[in-house]
Amino acid sequence: MSNNIYLKQGLNIPIEGAAVQSTKKVIKPEVVALKPTDFRGLVPKLLVREGDKVLAGSPVLADKMSQKILFTSPVSGEVIAIVRGEKRKLLEVRIKADETQEYVDFGTRKPSEMTAEEIKEHLLASGLWPALVQRPYGIIANPELKPKAIFASAFSTAPLAANAEYAYRADLEDIQTAINALSKLTDGGFHLSLNGDNYSGTPFHKLENVIMHTFTGKHPAGNVGVQIHHISPIMKGETVWTVSMPMLAAIGRLFNTGKYNVKRKVAVTGPAAVSPAYVEGFPGMAMKDIAEFCDKNVKTRFISGDVLTGTAVGEEGFLGFFDDQITLIKEGDEYEMFGWAKPFRCSQFSASRAYFSWLSPKKRYNMDTNLHGGVRAFVLSDVYSKVLPMKLFPVHLLKACLANDIDKMEQLGIYEVLPEDFALCEFVCPSKIEIQQIISDGIDLMLKEMA
Known about the structure:
Blueprint: E1 4-6, E2 23-26, E3 31-34, E4 44-46, E5 53-54, E6 59-63, E7 66-72, E8 77-84, E9 90-97, H1 116-126, E10 133-135, E11 139-140, E12 150-153, H2 164-168, H3 172-182, E13 190-195, E14 211-216, H4 224-231, E15 240-242, H5 245-257, E16 264-269, E17 277-281, E18 300-304, E19 311-312, E20 325-330, H6 394-402, H7 406-411, H8 423-428, H9 435-450
Parallel strand pairs: 1-14, 2-17, 12-13, 12-15, 13-14, 16-20
Antiparallel strand pairs: 3-9, 4-6, 5-8, 6-7, 8-9, 10-11, 10-15, 16-17, 18-19, 18-20
Helix pairs in contact: 3-5, 6-9
């Protein structure tokens, strides 16, 4: 076993609605959507028109900046809608799925018999290259670069996150194949982080050709960005790549079966979910496909992802490319008499000891989206440092982003962070500041000015 890294800072949010480890439904989607907005910095080039027939694995989009990077259809069927927003920004390509799925045959391959360039070309042609995320900035990996190392986290500490051991236990062979392939793309090795509380109980500790690390602590201990910070911090001029567990499984299937198969178990969770459990589906599947999990008597927010970092997609929306979780939570649009001044408030969770929730550490709360206040003065405090297990000055970095001070942003660690790493800071923020958006805007500025 590797040395365990214990993180003191962090916070686990005790929200109701964890999914039981049972697959309730295998979804055969009627319509799926490929969303360019899932990929930071992407300028998409449309390769299909309405009415075109596609197979699972057929190119649908390309990256205008690097047209070798393709985005392929997760299902076979017919392109039925090209959805655009303001200024004709491409938002979605919707595909009506066939009853029987047909796949592009990319051929089975053995990574051990392939060169790094052949592996790259195979991933690019299949449309699975976008599964690799490059840091700094969280953009699609540049195939012309060789990263310092590749990182993956085999567990998540996000609220109500899918249990990786349950969701991917059956995909171990494919995950091992993916690791063998990706290890050839870097000289720094493939780094896999496991939960220190359950190291021997997880099947992932048997994976080979990896550099193992274990982390123990509260959320965000499972964030790959936090793990990289403690394993090998990103300096100016360095790049690393990251890959998620569902994408590892998909990459392995590509090599083992020759098919673009991105199916995954998706945890349907949240206080507004009826009998939360898992479904087997695809990225891009419609929220309508989980209608039986919704309480019709509650006005519900549909979130692709978790409550801290997910995207509110609405009842008519679709699951994101990287997500293996859907969260259903009540809209907090009801007026609360007396608000924060109300005595006791035993039904409310507080990250501090403002209420009495600290007396019931095992209690789970029926939370909603209410912010419990408006934006206030952004003052210097240590509240962020208590939940951010990174050796940074979070308030100073945020204010450097607000001031568009690139030099200060570099000095204060903008290369190491993504908005998800600051999600807890936003949750505990007494000023109700949209901290993740500030970090996102700072990253966009870096991409614009440093490209």
